[in-house]
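Hi V.,

You were right to ask for the full record rather than a summary. Here it is.
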Amino acid sequence: MRHLYTFYSDAFWIAIKSISEHKLRAFLTLLGVIIGVASVVVVGASISGLNSYVTTQVSKALGANHFMMNRMAHSGQMDDEEFERRNKRNKKITWQEYEYVKAKCDVCSEIGAQDNDGIDINQNGIEMPSVRVQGVTDNMEIIEDKTMEMGRFITASEVDRSAKVVVLGYDVMEKFFPNQNPIDKTLKIRGVPLRVVGVEEKKGSFFGQAMDRHVYIPITLHFQFFGGDGGIQLHGKSEKREELIFAIEDARTQLRNRRKLIGSDEDTFGVVNTADLGNQIDQFTGAIAAVVVPITLITLVVGGIVVMNIMLVSVTERTFEVGLRKALGATRKQIMLQFLIESASLCILGGIIGLILATGVTSLITALAGITMTITVGYIVLAIAVSSIIGIIAGLYPAYKASKLDPIVALTQS
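Predicted structure:
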């Protein structure tokens, strides 16, 4: 056992000495491995970070365990033929249907309603175009897990009496009430003064799209402003994530019952939920990984070929050394292991440098793009493992060639 430890220890230090004696050559040799490992780790961290970013932003916008039903709701792509078919078949969801589903859906922890329109807001010479005016029921705060920056959300009594109150998105607050508390101040929508009762916490942007350019008003007041002829959105929530699918099915069944649809009839409405969006995100990032990761792996293959080439040069340079070691009793296996350890050590060093480079790149992207990318223990293990495997594979032929040298012939080489 001690003999084995001494052999591997000596072989490792011989490898380190060989690398240190040719620093520039070793660095140039390792460039392919360094760039390849850094690329793979950065791509993996980027995909993971993108996934987390999108999931976080979707949760901010929609909340957890949330589903939505309206006339044309769908997830994923829809071709023109399917759109036309649904457009002819589906019917808008009415207020009466919302009240029916709310009363009947036992699995749902909350059922709410929302109606959306866009307008330009102009007040005191300040204009803000394309502001989303969202008419909501009071429980949309719970359904979409909204967080208030200041003040409060709309109450049930304000919905019942169509109260002239408004909750501001953060961008709207900064536009019309900069550097001041907007609570109890007035914002005019369609010329009607509404009392500000709250400001929603800043959500930021989602792929360049502002998520704070909106206001909330009671949905009954929204009907008075905009009519509501296009139907409403029905929003639901389950208490737990595992209950979401049952809540959706319960709400779907109740709306079908209300519309007197029999078993063979297709739904005359659409449903989307946060779980489906999460699956789409996973598919999207998975597709990116399937395309990008193999491309980055090509760099590692090229790096491995360069390492193999330099190891062949090393075998040629050290022919006399190999012959001497064989003459002193070194076996073919020991000679082979010596060069494999050197090749693997060279690539592991490249993997470590690549990992350090990847850490710097991900930190820079996090700072510039605002998308948090974390290099986990898994990526560290992957970098070391991949670079080790490349080193072993790249060193196999040179090590085999060195082990086959005839000691008598080798000793004649200077």
